[in-house]
């Protein structure tokens, strides 16, 4: 008589789990494991170029996206979007003709993403 025994079955979710965190994609899991290139050099480059205009910072980010240079663009965005927002509030005040407009951090990030498009 044959009795099937399942020992240590691994699911797809298990393969995407690193240190108790289940990632959405295998790429993100590989990045968390350190198997992919580290994007810290891009974050460093954005910090070094932070004296440049936000417009040019956004152009740099788009070029990096087009060339697929970054292993994890979301990671770079989360660390660098604040360098790309400097002119957003002024632009929105001018467009809406509301000189006292104050945008929240969420709104600034959303509008910065829109500018990338």
Topology:
Layout: H1 12-15, E1 17-18, E2 21-22, H2 26-33, H3 40-48, H4 54-66, H5 73-80, H6 88-96, H7 105-116
Antiparallel strand pairs: 1-2
Explain what you see.
The chain has 117 residues and is mainly alpha-helical. It folds into two domains: 1-36, no CATH class; 37-116, no CATH class. Helix content is 54%, strand content 3%. It has seven helices and two strands. The model has no long low-confidence stretch (mean pLDDT 87).
Features of the shown structure:
about 120 residues, mainly alpha, two-stranded antiparallel ribbon, 7 helices, elongated
What structural class do the secondary elements suggest?
mainly alpha
Q: Characterize the largest beta sheet: strand count, sense, and whether it forms a barrel.
A: 2 strands, antiparallel
Average predicted local confidence, pLDDT = 87
Q: Please estimate the helix content.
A: 40-55%
Shape: elongated
Strand order of the largest sheet: 1-2
Q: Strand portion, in percent?
A: under 5%
Number of domains: 2
Count of helical stretches: 7
Distance between the termini: 64 Å
Radius of gyration: 21 Å
Poorly predicted runs: none
What is the number of E strands?
2
In N-to-C order, the SSE pattern is HEEHHHHHH
